[in-house]
Automatic annotation (TrEMBL), chain A:
SUPFAM superfamilies: PYP-like sensor domain (PAS domain)
Protein name (Swiss-Prot/TrEMBL): Nitrogen fixation regulatory protein
Domain of life: Bacteria
Biased composition (Basic residues): 399-408
Gene assigned in the entry: nifL
Enzyme nomenclature, EC number: 2.7.13.3
Domain PAS: 15-51, 122-162
Keyword Phosphoprotein belongs to the record: no
Lineage: Bacteria, Pseudomonadati, Pseudomonadota, Betaproteobacteria, Candidatus Accumulibacter
InterPro entries: DGC-Regulatory_Protein, PAC, PAS, PAS-assoc_C, PAS-like_dom_sf
NCBIfam families, per database record: sensory_box (TIGR00229)
Segments of this protein annotated with the region Disordered: 386-408
UniProtKB keywords: Transferase
Family matches, as PANTHER family: DIGUANYLATE CYCLASE DGCT-RELATED (PTHR46663), SLL0267 PROTEIN (PTHR46663:SF3)
Keyword Cytoplasm recorded: no
Automatic annotation (TrEMBL), chain B:
Example GO BP: rhythmic process
Organism: Accumulibacter regalis
This protein's name: Circadian clock protein KaiB
SMART domains for the chain: KaiB (SM01248)
SUPFAM superfamilies in UniProt: Thioredoxin-like (SSF52833)
Amino acid sequence: MSLHPKKVQEDPSFDKGAVLRLFAAMPDGMIVLDAMGIVLYANDSAHRMFGGRRLLGKNLGLPIMAGESHADIEVIDSAGRVGCAELRAATFDWLGQPATVASLRDITERRALERQLALAGQVFENAREGIIVTRPDGVIVSVNRSFTTITGYSLEEALGNTPRLLKSGEHDRAFFERMWESIAGQGFWHGEIVNRRKDGSLYPELLSISRIQDGDGQVAHLVGIFSDLTQHKTDQAALEEARLQLQQSEKLLEEIERRYTVANSPVLSVVGGMYGSAPLSRSAAGVFDELVHRYGRTLELAVENLAFKVDNPVSDQLRELADDLGYLQAGARDVAELHAQTLTRNTKGIPAAKAKAMIEEGRFLVLELMGDLLSFYRKNYSRVPAAAHPERDSTTKALHSRAKKGST
Amino acid sequence: MSKLQLTLYVAGVNDEIRQQVASLGRTMDTEVGLDNWVLDVVDVLEEPEKALQGDVFATPTLVRLVPLPVLKLLGAISQSEKILSIIASDGTGGEGG
């Protein structure tokens, strides 16, 4: 705002009416205050900013500036709502008395935009995904921190380059033609691509490219958002391995059961009978869930035994679990399902190395559990052939002790 | 001499406001004396009715309730020295650009 108090005072054409008309026409709030901060005059814009609060004769306060500049303040309207304003002030002579004219510029929207921009900036910088912004001709104009973390290229190295910087040579011309056709036709492309880091290593990424248009509908920028799939691929491979091991374990369990459930034995009548009935996970879902939880804890303890050379009572817990399974008349498939569900639940979101240890230890754990379950049936149905006992006991215990030795 | 009674109206209490209040407090301790002043802080986002009741139109506003006359200062509360020179006086001396 440009005020010229001296000129106003010296100008013979100055009159109160002219100044008031000038103030009234201003989009900014204009308030004249006396030496105590009492409002002598306020224009319509000022009244609007204060939500229609009565201003004349009220004590607004003496404006205090930081240096020669302005002060950012919040104005309070008649409903107690708060808006933002930029306050500037100048002293001058108002009808023969010293006064201060304060101008208030409403910056509520500007502040909201600034906050949005600051938020967008933070999201951009702190996103875990790499973000790359290019001009329509492909020249990079901005990248975020995760771009640098994933690719190894700094912002300075990326600026002025094109995304071909990351080209791996793994995709043919037709791949990129399809990508650009999609961006030109639909405005975006989404898919997996293999790129090359600064250190030369290749990595898979999930990439989304979107076209950003300006107000005239012209393409202003292209934005690529990508996440490194290296860990995801590793996890997928570990899960696939776990699934295969699980299948093998299940087959092994069925084989063990087949061996120990001889024809006409009571065990067969109990365990075998389960094949025709509903799985425990369905017939007693709540109990089954609790068993999964308990078995999961035992599995964790078993992995702890391996990792920290401690001696958690894993075998005791397995025996208790087997007893409960026995009372529920569980079969081999119930045990296999218990094992599968527990592994799925317990390996989710943990480091691949720990998941692998859990899967490997789980193989021996499930065998021991199966052995304990068969032992339960045998104990409660005494006609099971005695000859089978030492063989089963020695088999499972040997397996478990081998697992411990093998991992040390 | 009666104790200086001040109320500071702010819109939200953040670190910047805390620092300004602390700075003002230190200046008051030095210039006015440790036991010669009290300062209340009102957050108008929490208690807008207090701003309306107290005829406070904007924040930050520092109100001197005692001694009379009631004096209000609006704007850069960070200017502790400047503020003190006004509130310790008879209450006139608003600022221009």
